[in-house]
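User: Could you walk me through two proteins back to back? I'd like the raw sequence and the structure tokens for each, with a short line separating them so I can tell where one ends and the next begins.

Assistant: Of course. Protein one, sequence then structure:
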Amino acid sequence: MKEELLKLINLQAIDSEIAGFDHAIANHRTTIANREQSIADKEEAIVALKNRIELLNQKQRETKAEHEDAGARVKDRQNKMMQVQTSREHQALLKEIEDNKKLLKDTEDRILQFIEQIEQLEQEATELENLCAGERQLLAEEVDNVDKEVKRIEGAKKSVASRRDKEAATLEASHLKRYSMLLVKRDGLAVVAINESVCQGCYMTLPPQRVIEVRRADKLNLCPTCQRILYYPEEEDSADGA
């Protein structure tokens, strides 16, 4: 049984190595995805800025029209001042002229504010567009580098996977079945050591009798809590015998 347990320990080490390859590939692809998302976020922000700019331009055009109308009314009322006959009509025209002059000042101020806001937003949009251009260039370079690295990792993984198949083929069918089931259920960790009577899979303390049985290794011993296959590290045995 010790020989069978050693095979399971070796198989776990191989599977952990393969999982490391998969994790490295996933990290590289996450890096690319994050860069792509960063660009997409900036592009979305640019669209939002341009929509705001268009809205402000529309308001500016409307305000300019309002400004021109007010100016036209001032001139019209000033011309009418020469034709009025009564003091009441004169006062009414003066009030209209004053109101429209206030409107002229108000619309002029608003137009200037729109111009400032539009310039600010256009600057922000330009800066984001420049950042996007730079990030797209970096992304293209990163994609090329990641593709090369992933191919390298996949090549190494293929070699290790071949070794795994050979190792798995030497195991008893029932043991391989249990191991495979645990590998899936326990996040890629089916075989674990014990350290000071503690399972290194779930970190629960084992009963003393179970620790003794694990050290004997005359059968497969499972953690009573997580059901992982347990083994006693050889280095500890050597240390105890020294």
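----
Protein two, same layout:
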Amino acid sequence: MGHLALHYAGPEDGPLAARLLSLFGLIETQALPLPDGNFYRFVVNPDHFARGDGIVYLSALPAPQVRLIEAIHTALSIGTGHEHEAVAAYRAMLASDPEASFHFGFLVSTLEELEALVIALRDLAAGDPDYRDRIRISMNRARPGDAEADARLDASPVFGDCSRFAYGQGGVQVFVETDLIRAGQLGEAMHFEFDYVFPDRASHILSVVEL
């Protein structure tokens, strides 16, 4: 990957969005103050600090894009009693399948790291007023059938009570939706996906899709 450009809505959301990306595991290498909000540069790990790949940029939405999003919301009567039926259908799709539309996926090295991230995000959303109601988490555990993976997930503080299943065995998924970063057809929120695949599996959720 060369780079990915992400956006936040306004200047006040910039530091909050940057903190969230750091919690996700990205490494901030630059925060450039600009009149409309900071411009941030992140890399996926320290080895990419001075390279031209593995970069994530974060900046404020450009004014023309803000106006376009506002026009879309007006045309579809979003937030009113006359909201276009397509909006509800789109949101229902994302609620049942967060990876159905645009999203940014991370591969996490260990299940313990992923569990710790979920717990940290839950604590942040519950305990920090700046993040309350701005982070939503859902997850899929691996399809049953792998005895070792099933036993580990049953004992997990995060996946033990998870009743949703991925499109295959051998891996788990965590989805984080946040309006601190804006994307998608309605410009309302961004979806992030965090995956872990059990080692030494020839077939897992990222290698094959099962119906």
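The mean pLDDT is 95.

Let me know if you want the two compared in more detail.
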